[in-house]
Amino acid sequence: MQKRRVKVYQQAVTKMNRRTIILCIILAILAYYNQNTLAYLVKSVKTQTSLLLNTAQKTIESIPQPISIQNNPSELPATSNNTKPAEDINTPGPLQTFISETLNNNTPVDGAIGIGSIIYSTNIERNNNGKKPLIENATLDRTAYAKAKDMLDRQYFEHISPSGKGMGDLANNVGYDYITVGENLALGNFTTSADIVTAWMNSPGHRANILNDAYTEIGVGIVSGMYEGRNVWIAVQHFGRPLSDCPTINNVLKNTINKNEKDANIMQTELSKQKTVIDAPGTNAQPDYIQLVNTYNELVKKYNTLIATTKDQITEYNKQIQKFNKCISQPATN
Q: Which of 38, 54, 84, 202 lies deepest, with the highest CB count within 10 Å?
């Protein structure tokens, strides 16, 4: 009986040991499997995190497409290249007249021919025709006298000198910046200033100059002497409207716009190079990738700021051009 109990006990222990061993094996298998699963999950999480980080790092600011300075030259009107319009010089044919072919005396009575009296007679004619009077300008007096003396000294009677110089050259030489200028010439044996002005008024081209609404100023030059064997008076009227009559155009602003255009082109080239490097395969895995992106984005900001500033400058410059063009297209308001 005792032996049987011992045998039953041994069988039970053996059976238990088997179950324990099987359980341990199962637990070991589960433990091994769970370890691999955990490692896989950890690895998967790390991979996803890395992908998210890379995605976050690749934040490249796009370049907006503002109106390009270079590609839109119409932003700057054609007249913006000058501080005044193309030369506007009115020069009717020289007037040569002799009151009498037998009269050969160039000495007026009581100073009847003079600068002041010619200007006075000119303004009388303007007043009679509903025009505003012209103001004497000392600089135009000098250019008119220089023209009269040059013609007498060199024995010619033309608007263009033998050396190719005209009214515009004379004005430029003395620093008379103008919107428009004109010149009347007269040669003859006149006895009074009124005779000279009357002769001009009887000539359509010279009359148009005297009554021109575009002028605000006048200068006169007179000389007397021998011309082709006769004692004569040579009289010159120089008409003008100074550039200062119209709003100024800021050429410093224009130069700034031109410089900005060059700088923007340089930036565009550099941005294109940097973008090519950033978009190259494998660049986002490089340790300096974030720095490349940051450098690119900083340059984008500078470029966009420059474009915005330049557009504002162009707008302002074009306003100045428009005001100037409007001014020169209207009659003078002296």
A: 84
